[in-house]
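Mods, move this if it's the wrong board.
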Amino acid sequence: MSLSLKAFLGTACALLASAGAAQAAEDSMDTVLGKALFERLWVSAPSSTKAADGLGPLFNSRACSSCHQGGGRAKVSLQEGDLPASAGLTLRVGAVKNGALVPHPLLGSQVQTFAVPGLKPESKLHVSFQTHVETLNDGTTAELRRPRIQIDGQDQLADLAWISPRLAPDLHGASLLERVPLTWLAAQADPDDLNGDGISGAVVMGQYGEQDIEPGRFGWKGDEPDLAHQISAAFHFDLGLSTPLRRALWGDCTTAQSDCRAAPQGADKGGVEVETTVVSLVATYLRALPEPASSAATEDTKRGQMLFTKTGCGACHASKAPAELADGAAKWFAPYTDLLVHDMGDGLADRAFDDSVSTVAGAHEWRTAPLWGLGARVAAKDGANLLHDGRARSVLEAILWHGGEAAPAKQRAAELPAEDRAALIAFLESL
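Not the wrong board. Structure tokens:
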């Protein structure tokens, strides 16, 4: 359906229905169009399909839905060996200059596993695991595994100093998360731990310059303030498409990749490949995705919820947050996140490429992942694949990986009697 047809239908709605009904029809049509654009398979330029070309030249997927089927999380089961190129797990990379993280001079900020005809992908991703076993107080054992991601020719990349695997998350409920106000986030934050509780969550600000007054709400590092920025970042890094917020026509190609930068592009001179209207329509579709539904409470899950609070899990996974509606009213909802970034310890930290813990600022910090929808992720036929890189195969494994500010809560959960721990997990799997 073209944008001209969208305009025609909008006019028809205005003529044939009341103003309220016309607006509802327009909103519904925007959602349908946004879904179609979300599922669109982009092609390389030049193409007769001018509105859908410009893919790459290097990319990780051809459509948003390739990694977020139905707006959900990546459907990937981590196994030893070569990772399928379209699995929805990407690898952020970087070099370190003067103590700060910068894009890698050859690979850029992300390893792209596909390329348009005439170019070669940067690499495949190869997965192996480091494992260790933790024994809980009651004798229960759990094997924990950390994925080690390797790329082709890594021995020739001496300046590759930082890697960060990222799994495509579930996008349901994004509309409410986008509307959480800065005032609430600031009230939850305590970056200097002034209250001495060991929790020092921080709001990510200024990621788009000093004049940026919107806090980060999206992304594993909480570095994207709203859906428009998050979508634009995905177009840039994952599909190699330019938008008004990220205008590089060659996506993540570096100056060292001259063939990539010289490849045909899908924009008119001075323009971009994905216009603001397209970004807006995709955002409209994502905002229409409902928040995940939780299961009906049982005696076990009620007791588990009490234990969730008692162990301290709720200090970061806040059960209630406000969304600021268009009329200024607040709608309280239950995402089980404070949307702040926290130090999660060495176990979950981004790694240096020699697998030592990275010392780059922010390597230990992660935005608190929303827990709503956790039950569906655990029940998925391709496995739970929890945490930012999909390493945890169960809720218990995910809990045991927590460190840093979450270490005391993790320890209290590990010390629970088996029956109580089962109730806690039952509660989490009901979300």
